[in-house]
């Protein structure tokens, strides 16, 4: 089963700040650090739809990264505020894809996509339950009041 | 010159969330991740006193970690909100010390201290300027409106 | 100028071990950790051709990541030995591309490619010098005797 | 029960290289990265005594960090080779302590100690088995032939 998420519903934006530890000796954000931003934004995306990924993980549902692509257009630097725009673009029975744009002061500096598979505690692929699918197709309805 | 910061002025609290990448296969927050929380809290502590550590770094002033101690009383877990209580407890001419308590839901789970030296771009120790000292002795007067 | 590296010359293999810190609460290697393996393998690839990337960095030549793609076929786990097979597949005047396969016990578990741009200390793109190009087109001729 | 390990038997040295990702915008190794070196050296220390920490972890025996102290005397830099000298200095019924010196070209640049508790999969402290104690009190007798 392959659902096409409604683009207007499927998007959320998460603001993050670049930490000192994320920088490298070039003075810029290390390319690997962006994947931690995308991951934090995914967790926030779910929270804005009423789901807590930590609860899912405790119940044995994991979203494991299976494929990524990222283009680094402009470097981010220490202490900058980044807006991570996260959009669910594909929802299959046991996998999904998020597309990302990272903006700094309104300018796109990074574009990426990440595919994830639903797996259980033993790493076996499993279909999403209806409850999980409902979260994925929901629109943002929770405004985070705490740090993401 | 050795100033004793006023304890009431010298304390700020920063709320952070444990990220997925911070966990390890024991299912808890990796011990090394706490140092990134303490670091982010230091940057926030300065911002609450009107200083931007990134500006200092760009001007060639760095605060390099020279000694740390940490006791892990209870493990933190993915997605938990942590309050990092940061207190400047020593201010010397070219070095300083912060004491930390990390609380989860009001309970102390981690205690640490970090000593830092003021260095320039070449790594030479240098005295703090009066402007920098003034920031260190200021009380918190900026409420952060953005992610830390 | 666009050189097609000789495939036989352009490949090196680097063996690494998964560290505890690289794991996450799923019990597997975090997807972001692979980029640090690919990076370490690039540094090793250069060393095997007589170049020390650290020297280049000190001289103001950096290879900045501008695009990546990675497919995670099978998870790696703590303490496993991984063979990172690194092949230079594109060499342009100011950029290059490495293709990677990560093998565990002879089985491919991860496939990736990384594009890098040559930049200077200010982040400006610059052409590779002839000396740098010569390294890129050299075959492996140094056997590492130290950890990579 | 509190055993005093024989100092001559209790020491091993592990050589590591500083990776690019370990650096920060000061151009030096980030203070947090050292804890990953100490951890990798502990795993190597055990392997040199015939034990595989990964096997222990799979069997539900974990060594969780409960306290650390570290003094940073001289910064390490990208690509440098570091010798991590690891000594078991305390062995109690359910905890142990390692003392560390990190040397670069024979010069001590970092001194640290780390206390660990033996815990099970649920995080409960548990006594070391005789088999585990025997490993801890053994002298180094395996020469690693693979990357650590």
Tell me what the structure shows.
The structure is a homotetramer of 148-residue chains. Chain A is an alpha+beta fold and 148 residues long. Chain A has 3 helices and 5 strands. Chains in contact: A-B, A-C, A-D, B-C, B-D, C-D. The A-B interface holds A 15-17, 19-21, 35-36, 39-40, 43, 52-54, 57, 77-81, 146-148 and B 15-17, 19-21, 35-36, 39-40, 43, 52-54, 57, 77-79, 81, 146-148. Strand 2 of chain A pairs antiparallel with strand 2 of chain C, so a sheet runs across the interface.
Order of helices and strands of chain A: EHHEEEEH
The overall pLDDT of chain A, averaged over residues, is 95
In terms of DSSP E residues, the strand content of chain A is 35-45%
User: Could you give a short account of the major beta sheet of chain A?
Assistant: 5 strands, antiparallel
The coarse overall form of chain A would be globular
Uncertain segments of chain A are: none
Rounded to the nearest angstrom, the radius of gyration of chain A is 15 Å
Greatest chain-chain contact:
A-B, 23 and 22 residues
Distance between the termini of chain A: 31 Å
Number of helices of chain A: 3
Number of strands of chain A: 5
Keywords, please?
homotetramer, alpha+beta, 5 strands
Give the SSE layout.
Four copies of one chain form a homotetramer.
Chain A: E1 11-17, H1 33-47, H2 53-58, E2 62-72, E3 81-91, E4 95-104, E5 107-119, H3 130-137
Antiparallel strand pairs in A: 1-3, 2-5, 3-4, 4-5
Give a concise summary.
Helix content of chain A is 20%, strand content 35%. With 148 residues, the first copy, chain A, is α+β, with helices and mostly antiparallel strands.
